[in-house]
Write a structure and sequence with these properties.
The protein contains ten helices and seven strands. The chain has helices spanning about 20-25, 55-65, 80-85, 100-115, 130-135, 135-145, 190-195, 210-225, 250-260, 270-280; strands at about 75, 95, 120-130, 150-155, 200-205, 230-235, 265-270. About 45% of the residues are buried. The model has no long low-confidence stretch (mean pLDDT about 95). The structure holds iron/sulfur cluster.
Protein backbone atom coordinates (compact mmCIF):
# COMPACT_ATOMS: atom_id res chain seq x y z
CA UNK A 1 0.00 0.00 0.00
CA UNK A 2 2.11 2.81 -1.35
CA UNK A 3 3.14 4.21 -4.69
CA UNK A 4 5.04 0.96 -5.20
CA UNK A 5 1.88 -1.01 -5.75
CA UNK A 6 1.03 0.91 -8.91
CA UNK A 7 4.55 0.82 -10.35
CA UNK A 8 5.48 -1.64 -13.09
CA UNK A 9 7.91 -4.41 -12.33
CA UNK A 10 10.96 -3.88 -14.51
CA UNK A 11 10.53 -5.49 -17.91
CA UNK A 12 6.76 -5.99 -17.54
CA UNK A 13 5.56 -2.58 -18.78
CA UNK A 14 4.87 -3.80 -22.30
CA UNK A 15 2.68 -6.67 -21.08
CA UNK A 16 0.40 -4.55 -18.89
CA UNK A 17 -3.15 -3.72 -20.12
CA UNK A 18 -3.63 -0.21 -21.49
CA UNK A 19 -6.02 0.69 -18.64
CA UNK A 20 -3.32 -0.13 -16.12
CA UNK A 21 -0.64 1.79 -17.99
CA UNK A 22 -2.97 4.79 -18.20
CA UNK A 23 -3.52 4.65 -14.45
CA UNK A 24 0.21 4.51 -13.70
CA UNK A 25 1.13 7.22 -16.20
CA UNK A 26 -1.88 9.55 -16.02
CA UNK A 27 -3.62 8.71 -12.75
CA UNK A 28 -3.70 10.76 -9.55
CA UNK A 29 -1.24 8.67 -7.53
CA UNK A 30 1.48 10.79 -5.99
CA UNK A 31 0.14 14.00 -7.54
CA UNK A 32 -1.97 16.90 -6.33
CA UNK A 33 -5.16 16.65 -8.39
CA UNK A 34 -8.35 18.71 -8.04
CA UNK A 35 -11.95 18.16 -9.15
CA UNK A 36 -11.54 21.23 -11.38
CA UNK A 37 -9.18 19.08 -13.50
CA UNK A 38 -11.77 16.31 -14.01
CA UNK A 39 -11.59 14.96 -17.52
CA UNK A 40 -7.89 15.66 -17.89
CA UNK A 41 -6.51 12.66 -15.97
CA UNK A 42 -7.24 9.00 -15.44
CA UNK A 43 -9.64 8.73 -12.54
CA UNK A 44 -9.59 6.18 -9.75
CA UNK A 45 -13.18 5.28 -10.57
CA UNK A 46 -14.40 5.42 -14.16
CA UNK A 47 -16.55 2.38 -14.82
CA UNK A 48 -19.27 0.93 -12.62
CA UNK A 49 -22.42 -1.19 -12.91
CA UNK A 50 -24.79 1.24 -11.18
CA UNK A 51 -28.01 2.66 -12.64
CA UNK A 52 -27.69 5.37 -15.28
CA UNK A 53 -27.71 8.79 -13.68
CA UNK A 54 -27.31 7.50 -10.11
CA UNK A 55 -26.18 10.52 -8.08
CA UNK A 56 -24.24 8.22 -5.78
CA UNK A 57 -21.76 7.39 -8.53
CA UNK A 58 -20.98 11.06 -9.14
CA UNK A 59 -20.41 11.56 -5.44
CA UNK A 60 -18.14 8.50 -5.17
CA UNK A 61 -16.17 9.63 -8.21
CA UNK A 62 -15.65 13.05 -6.65
CA UNK A 63 -14.75 11.52 -3.30
CA UNK A 64 -12.04 9.40 -4.93
CA UNK A 65 -10.51 12.52 -6.47
CA UNK A 66 -10.73 14.36 -3.16
CA UNK A 67 -8.91 11.92 -0.88
CA UNK A 68 -5.58 13.59 -0.13
CA UNK A 69 -3.34 10.54 -0.67
CA UNK A 70 -5.11 7.91 -2.79
CA UNK A 71 -1.95 5.79 -2.90
CA UNK A 72 -2.09 5.55 0.91
CA UNK A 73 -5.84 5.11 1.33
CA UNK A 74 -8.00 2.06 2.00
CA UNK A 75 -11.78 2.22 1.57
CA UNK A 76 -14.04 0.09 3.74
CA UNK A 77 -17.64 -0.59 2.81
CA UNK A 78 -20.54 -2.93 3.18
CA UNK A 79 -23.53 -4.28 1.26
CA UNK A 80 -25.41 -1.72 -0.77
CA UNK A 81 -25.32 0.01 -4.13
CA UNK A 82 -22.24 2.07 -3.34
CA UNK A 83 -19.92 -0.90 -3.03
CA UNK A 84 -20.68 -1.89 -6.64
CA UNK A 85 -18.75 1.21 -7.69
CA UNK A 86 -16.22 1.46 -4.85
CA UNK A 87 -15.10 -2.12 -5.39
CA UNK A 88 -14.22 -1.27 -9.01
CA UNK A 89 -12.01 1.68 -8.11
CA UNK A 90 -8.24 1.55 -8.33
CA UNK A 91 -7.60 1.71 -4.62
CA UNK A 92 -7.85 -1.13 -2.08
CA UNK A 93 -11.37 -1.87 -0.85
CA UNK A 94 -12.32 -3.96 2.17
CA UNK A 95 -15.85 -5.33 2.01
CA UNK A 96 -17.16 -6.26 5.42
CA UNK A 97 -20.23 -8.21 6.46
CA UNK A 98 -23.33 -6.07 6.44
CA UNK A 99 -22.97 -3.39 9.07
CA UNK A 100 -19.52 -4.21 10.43
CA UNK A 101 -17.64 -1.63 8.35
CA UNK A 102 -16.82 0.68 11.27
CA UNK A 103 -15.62 -2.25 13.38
CA UNK A 104 -13.40 -3.43 10.51
CA UNK A 105 -12.15 0.12 9.94
CA UNK A 106 -11.32 0.53 13.64
CA UNK A 107 -9.07 -2.52 13.62
CA UNK A 108 -7.58 -1.67 10.25
CA UNK A 109 -6.75 1.89 11.18
CA UNK A 110 -5.13 0.82 14.46
CA UNK A 111 -3.17 -1.92 12.71
CA UNK A 112 -1.89 0.48 10.06
CA UNK A 113 -0.68 2.86 12.75
CA UNK A 114 1.22 0.08 14.47
CA UNK A 115 2.73 -1.12 11.20
CA UNK A 116 3.57 2.24 9.61
CA UNK A 117 3.94 4.56 12.59
CA UNK A 118 3.53 8.22 11.74
CA UNK A 119 3.24 7.76 7.99
CA UNK A 120 -0.36 8.61 7.10
CA UNK A 121 -2.38 5.60 5.96
CA UNK A 122 -5.93 6.86 5.58
CA UNK A 123 -8.94 4.66 6.22
CA UNK A 124 -12.24 5.88 4.78
CA UNK A 125 -15.55 4.11 5.35
CA UNK A 126 -18.09 4.69 2.62
CA UNK A 127 -21.42 2.97 3.20
CA UNK A 128 -25.11 3.55 2.64
CA UNK A 129 -27.69 4.80 5.10
CA UNK A 130 -28.84 1.23 5.85
CA UNK A 131 -25.32 0.10 6.68
CA UNK A 132 -24.50 3.23 8.67
CA UNK A 133 -27.66 4.27 10.51
CA UNK A 134 -29.52 0.96 10.78
CA UNK A 135 -27.64 -2.31 10.58
CA UNK A 136 -24.19 -0.91 11.40
CA UNK A 137 -25.40 1.74 13.82
CA UNK A 138 -23.95 0.17 16.95
CA UNK A 139 -20.43 -0.10 15.54
CA UNK A 140 -20.60 3.34 13.94
CA UNK A 141 -21.54 4.97 17.23
CA UNK A 142 -18.94 3.06 19.22
CA UNK A 143 -16.19 3.93 16.76
CA UNK A 144 -17.11 7.60 17.24
CA UNK A 145 -17.25 7.40 21.03
CA UNK A 146 -13.84 5.69 20.93
CA UNK A 147 -12.54 8.49 18.69
CA UNK A 148 -11.24 6.02 16.13
CA UNK A 149 -9.16 7.94 13.65
CA UNK A 150 -10.87 7.40 10.33
CA UNK A 151 -13.57 9.06 8.26
CA UNK A 152 -17.10 7.71 7.91
CA UNK A 153 -19.02 8.82 4.83
CA UNK A 154 -22.71 7.98 4.61
CA UNK A 155 -24.09 7.64 1.08
CA UNK A 156 -27.56 8.76 2.10
CA UNK A 157 -30.00 7.75 -0.62
CA UNK A 158 -32.72 7.53 2.01
CA UNK A 159 -33.80 4.01 1.04
CA UNK A 160 -32.63 0.42 0.68
CA UNK A 161 -32.15 0.87 -3.06
CA UNK A 162 -30.20 -2.34 -3.57
CA UNK A 163 -33.03 -4.56 -2.33
CA UNK A 164 -36.01 -2.90 -3.93
CA UNK A 165 -37.08 0.06 -1.83
CA UNK A 166 -37.57 -0.61 1.89
CA UNK A 167 -37.56 2.41 4.23
CA UNK A 168 -34.40 3.03 6.21
CA UNK A 169 -33.80 5.06 9.35
CA UNK A 170 -32.73 7.88 7.04
CA UNK A 171 -35.92 7.90 4.96
CA UNK A 172 -37.95 11.04 5.59
CA UNK A 173 -41.19 10.77 7.53
CA UNK A 174 -44.15 10.22 5.23
CA UNK A 175 -42.11 8.96 2.26
CA UNK A 176 -43.94 6.27 0.28
CA UNK A 177 -41.72 3.59 -1.23
CA UNK A 178 -42.30 0.38 -3.15
CA UNK A 179 -41.73 -1.70 -0.03
CA UNK A 180 -43.16 0.92 2.35
CA UNK A 181 -46.47 1.64 0.61
CA UNK A 182 -48.20 3.16 3.65
CA UNK A 183 -45.54 5.81 4.12
CA UNK A 184 -42.85 6.01 6.78
CA UNK A 185 -44.24 6.76 10.23
CA UNK A 186 -41.02 7.92 11.93
CA UNK A 187 -38.64 10.84 11.58
CA UNK A 188 -35.39 10.68 9.63
CA UNK A 189 -32.60 9.88 12.08
CA UNK A 190 -30.48 12.83 13.10
CA UNK A 191 -27.09 11.24 12.55
CA UNK A 192 -25.41 14.65 12.37
CA UNK A 193 -26.39 15.46 15.92
CA UNK A 194 -25.44 11.98 17.08
CA UNK A 195 -22.01 12.37 15.49
CA UNK A 196 -21.48 15.59 17.41
CA UNK A 197 -22.73 14.14 20.70
CA UNK A 198 -20.43 11.15 20.20
CA UNK A 199 -17.45 13.48 19.84
CA UNK A 200 -16.67 13.54 16.11
CA UNK A 201 -14.12 16.27 15.39
CA UNK A 202 -15.64 17.10 12.02
CA UNK A 203 -19.22 16.71 10.75
CA UNK A 204 -20.54 17.93 7.40
CA UNK A 205 -23.46 17.54 5.01
CA UNK A 206 -23.09 17.83 1.23
CA UNK A 207 -24.89 17.13 -2.01
CA UNK A 208 -23.00 15.91 -5.09
CA UNK A 209 -23.72 18.82 -7.41
CA UNK A 210 -21.17 21.07 -5.77
CA UNK A 211 -17.88 19.28 -6.63
CA UNK A 212 -15.61 21.83 -4.97
CA UNK A 213 -17.51 21.58 -1.74
CA UNK A 214 -17.44 17.78 -1.84
CA UNK A 215 -13.69 17.98 -2.39
CA UNK A 216 -13.22 20.45 0.42
CA UNK A 217 -15.17 18.51 3.06
CA UNK A 218 -13.57 15.18 2.21
CA UNK A 219 -10.05 16.60 2.34
CA UNK A 220 -10.69 18.21 5.71
CA UNK A 221 -12.37 15.11 7.13
CA UNK A 222 -9.55 12.78 6.08
CA UNK A 223 -6.79 15.09 7.31
CA UNK A 224 -8.48 15.63 10.69
CA UNK A 225 -9.03 11.90 11.12
CA UNK A 226 -5.29 11.28 10.82
CA UNK A 227 -4.56 12.71 14.24
CA UNK A 228 -7.52 14.38 15.92
CA UNK A 229 -10.33 11.81 15.86
CA UNK A 230 -13.41 10.50 14.08
CA UNK A 231 -14.95 12.50 11.26
CA UNK A 232 -18.34 12.12 9.58
CA UNK A 233 -19.74 13.27 6.25
CA UNK A 234 -23.36 12.76 5.27
CA UNK A 235 -23.95 13.01 1.54
CA UNK A 236 -27.36 13.19 -0.12
CA UNK A 237 -27.00 10.74 -3.01
CA UNK A 238 -30.52 10.22 -4.31
CA UNK A 239 -31.77 6.91 -5.62
CA UNK A 240 -33.38 7.85 -8.91
CA UNK A 241 -34.84 4.36 -9.32
CA UNK A 242 -36.67 4.04 -5.99
CA UNK A 243 -37.70 7.72 -5.86
CA UNK A 244 -38.64 7.78 -9.57
CA UNK A 245 -36.43 10.76 -10.38
CA UNK A 246 -35.98 11.04 -14.16
CA UNK A 247 -32.31 10.63 -15.06
CA UNK A 248 -32.06 14.12 -16.52
CA UNK A 249 -33.54 15.63 -13.33
CA UNK A 250 -31.18 14.02 -10.83
CA UNK A 251 -29.00 17.10 -10.37
CA UNK A 252 -32.06 19.37 -10.25
CA UNK A 253 -33.48 17.16 -7.51
CA UNK A 254 -30.21 17.41 -5.56
CA UNK A 255 -30.31 21.19 -5.82
CA UNK A 256 -33.95 21.32 -4.68
CA UNK A 257 -33.34 18.94 -1.80
CA UNK A 258 -30.28 20.94 -0.77
CA UNK A 259 -32.33 24.14 -0.69
CA UNK A 260 -35.25 22.50 1.05
CA UNK A 261 -33.87 20.20 3.76
CA UNK A 262 -30.24 19.26 3.10
CA UNK A 263 -28.38 22.55 3.42
CA UNK A 264 -24.61 22.52 3.64
CA UNK A 265 -23.54 22.35 7.27
CA UNK A 266 -20.06 22.00 8.66
CA UNK A 267 -18.95 21.54 12.26
CA UNK A 268 -15.23 21.64 13.08
CA UNK A 269 -14.06 21.15 16.67
CA UNK A 270 -11.67 23.74 18.10
CA UNK A 271 -8.89 21.16 18.25
CA UNK A 272 -9.47 20.24 14.60
CA UNK A 273 -9.44 23.91 13.54
CA UNK A 274 -6.11 24.44 15.23
CA UNK A 275 -4.70 21.26 13.71
CA UNK A 276 -5.81 22.17 10.17
CA UNK A 277 -4.38 25.66 10.51
CA UNK A 278 -1.04 24.67 12.00
CA UNK A 279 -0.39 21.43 10.15
CA UNK A 280 -1.99 22.07 6.76
CA UNK A 281 -2.10 25.87 6.48
CA UNK A 282 -5.89 26.35 6.51
CA UNK A 283 -5.92 30.12 6.98
CA UNK A 284 -9.65 30.31 7.77
CA UNK A 285 -9.00 28.41 10.99
CA UNK A 286 -6.18 30.59 12.25
CA UNK A 287 -7.17 32.44 15.42
CA UNK A 288 -8.54 35.90 14.60
CA UNK A 289 -6.32 38.72 15.90
CA UNK A 290 -7.91 40.24 19.00
CA UNK A 291 -9.26 43.78 18.47
CA UNK A 292 -7.00 46.26 20.25
CA UNK A 293 -8.51 47.73 23.40
CA UNK A 294 -8.41 51.35 22.23
CA UNK A 295 -9.69 50.71 18.70
CA UNK A 296 -12.32 53.18 17.53
CA UNK A 297 -15.24 51.37 15.86
CA UNK A 298 -15.82 52.26 12.18
CA UNK A 299 -18.59 54.75 11.60
CA UNK A 300 -21.11 53.66 9.01
S1 LIG B 1 -30.87 1.44 -7.10
FE1 LIG B 1 -30.77 3.66 -6.69
S2 LIG B 1 -28.93 4.00 -5.43
FE2 LIG B 1 -28.80 1.94 -6.35
S3 LIG B 1 -27.58 2.24 -8.22
FE3 LIG B 1 -29.75 2.40 -8.80
S4 LIG B 1 -30.24 4.60 -8.66
FE4 LIG B 1 -28.31 4.26 -7.57
Amino acid sequence: MSLDYVKFTNGFEKFMPKEYRDMVEHGPFGKKISVSQMGSFKEILEEHPMCAGCAMTLFIRLAMIAVPNPEDTIMVGTAGCGRLAISQAAIPFVYGNYGDQNGVASGLSRGLRLRFGDKPKDVVVMAGDGGTADIGFQQVLHSWFRKERFTTIMLDNEVYGNTGGQESGMTSRGAVLKMAPLGKKFEKMDMLQMAKVAGCAYVATVVPNNPRRVESVIKKAVLIAREVGSTYIQAYTSCNIEYAIPTDKVMEDAKNVENDRYQFTEYVSEEAKQYLAERYGYKEFLPKPAASAGAIPNKA
